[in-house]
Design goal:
127 residues; 1 helix; mainly beta; Dna Ligase, domain 1; four-stranded antiparallel sheet; DNA-directed RNA polymerase subunit; RNA_pol_III_Rbc25; DNA-directed RNA polymerase; RNA_pol_Rpb7-like_N_sf; transcription
C-alpha cells in the first residue's frame, strides 16, 4: 500500500529561499511540487521521506534562482487491485459509498462494484 520511490529531479530554488538552510528550502520546494499529487505509475505522493543528494547550485544568466539536481525518496500510496483498506465511511447513498482512509477523502465505490450481498436501504426521513 505504501512505497518509497527514489526520484531524481532538477529543482529551481527561487532567490527568496536562499536565506534558509539548503535542505529545508529544498524540502519545502519538493513538498510544494509533489505532495498530494498523483504521479503516473507511482501513486499518490504522501510525504518527502528523505533527500539523498543535492548537486549543482548553478545560477543561469538572467534568472537569479539557483538550480539543483536533487535525488530524494517519496512516500507513495499505491494500493493494489483487490487490496483491503481500512477506511471511515464519509457518505452513503443509492449510487455508492465515499470513504476516507484518513489522509484523503476521495475513495468512491460505485454500487455496481459492491458485492452482490450488499444492498441499499434509503433513509425514509431523508428526502
Amino acid at each position: 500500500m505504501f512505497y518509497l520511490s527514489l526520484i531524481e529531479h532538477t529543482l529551481r530554488l527561487p532567490p527568496h529561499l536562499l536565506d534558509l538552510p539548503l535542505n529545508e528550502a529544498i524540502k519545502g520546494e519538493l513538498e510544494s511540487l509533489f505532495l498530494d499529487k498523483v504521479i503516473a505509475n507511482l501513486g499518490l505522493c504522501i510525504s518527502v521521506y528523505d533527500i539523498r543528494s543535492i548537486d549543482g547550485g548553478f545560477v543561469f544568466p538572467g534568472d537569479g534562482a539557483s538550480t539543483y539536481t536533487v535525488e530524494f525518496r517519496l512516500v507513495m500510496f499505491r494500493p493494489f487491485v483487490g487490496e483491503i483498506i481500512t477506511a471511515k465511511l464519509k457518505e452513503s447513498n443509492a449510487n455508492g459509498l465515499r470513504l476516507s482512509p484518513g489522509f484523503f477523502d476521495d475513495i468512491y465505490i460505485p454500487i455496481h462494484l459492491m458485492p452482490n450481498s450488499c444492498h441499499c436501504e434509503p433513509n425514509p426521513e431523508k428526502k
